Amino acid sequence: MTVYRSLDLFSGCGGLSLGMSLAKNSKGDSISTACAIDIWEIACKTFEHNLGLKPLCEPIDDDLIRRVNQENGPFDIVVGGPPCQGFSTAGKRALDDDRNKLVLAFLRAIEITNPKVFVMENVTGFKTFQNGKIHEEVVLFAKKLGYQVRSAIVLASLSGVPQRRKRFLLVGSKVGAFKFPGEQALPHDENLFESDEFSLEKFFVQKPENGTEKWTFNDATSDLPALKAGQRLEKYKTPPKNSLQEYFRKGSELPLDHFAVGHREYFIEMLSYIPQGKSALDPEVQKTMPKKLRPTSGFKNSYQRIVGDAPSPTITRNFTTPSSANCIHPSQDRALSIREGARCQSFPDWFYFLGTTDEKRLQIGNAVPPLLGKAIGESILNALIESKKTKTKA
Ligand SMILES: C[S@@+](CC[C@H](N)C(=O)[O-])C[C@H]1O[C@@H](n2cnc3c(N)ncnc32)[C@H](O)[C@@H]1O
Prior knowledge:
Layout: E1 3-9, H1 15-21, E2 30-37, H2 41-51, H3 62-72, E3 77-80, H4 101-113, E4 117-122, H5 133-144, E5 148-155, E6 166-173, H6 190-194, H7 217-221, H8 243-249, H9 265-271, H10 283-288, E7 304-305, E8 326-328, H11 338-344, H12 357-366, H13 370-393
Parallel strand pairs: 1-2, 1-3, 3-4, 7-8
Antiparallel strand pairs: 4-6, 5-6
Helix pairs in contact: 1-13, 3-4
Residues 10-16, 37-40, 43, 59-60, 81, 83, 102, 366-368 line the site of S-adenosylmethionine (SAM).
């Protein structure tokens, strides 16, 4: 049984590290985060509080990575989600643009530490940013370092997360082939999975109808007590009703931060008119409510009520603000509580977020869902088993 050592870059509150620590392969191999780095102090404190490892709270650059590699390396695995925004870089190389410097810092970290496998996670737009230039350059960079590269958009709900969250993953392996979480659930297609990893056509979007989404919002939260807006009730309403709730509650006495932010009276009344899956901006919903309550503007997901019998929508930092996100409880007239947001992200109840309510929301919304992290860890461990087999044969 091998324990592989991982370096977690841009580690946030530790969603990805927690998830990877839960992964095992058939040989009993596992992954331990040997070093984590993030510039955000409160997220580093949350990481340390829950995972018992103090991240380095410093900006990531070559000097820091060289030092870390010398003092704490070697690393078998490097993971991380360098922040990246879409913008145009007409003419010049995308990786030379200062606004992409954290993506370059991540790649330089791979070059310096030379892990067996690396995983870069990002927003789903990563593939199309700058007309695909940044993606192409990242693939080329990794290929030159000797990695086999594959990229995909994965859907967290196919890995046991009670949320339809999509993330972009780019994986480089110097060992066995890497299969994406949920890939096995899709109909087998040799052309799609087995041929040239670098072709843009190999990029695929997993579709829920082809896979198996295990858990709904109600499955994830039905043991928590009902709340009114502004109320905090940190106790369980019932014993766990399914294995997901057992996972949440193992090692936890109380659902800390089952707390819903307050709303004004008129706002709560407005929420009461919105059916599941609909928004207060839908004309047919507006017809049902008094004129004075009707909101007149918003974003695509504003004032929308979650469907209880489906995985939750993506949990963003705005999951307590109905005017900016799809976050109204399926049957209660309020936004999600902090604990409900954390559960939709598949954080167990013992995982406690430090900081203000705003800082908690941001740490939760930023995180890789731990159960997706676990699936990513299992895929990495399976790729590592492949390399052991090859070595044994030789
Ligand atoms: C998407 S979040 C990471 C979430 C994390 N992987 C998880 O699962 O919880 C990105 C993180 O990058 C960090 N960050 C941004 N710029 C940084 C820099 N220059 N050096 C180190 N960390 C940085 C932010 O503080 C933020 O926590």
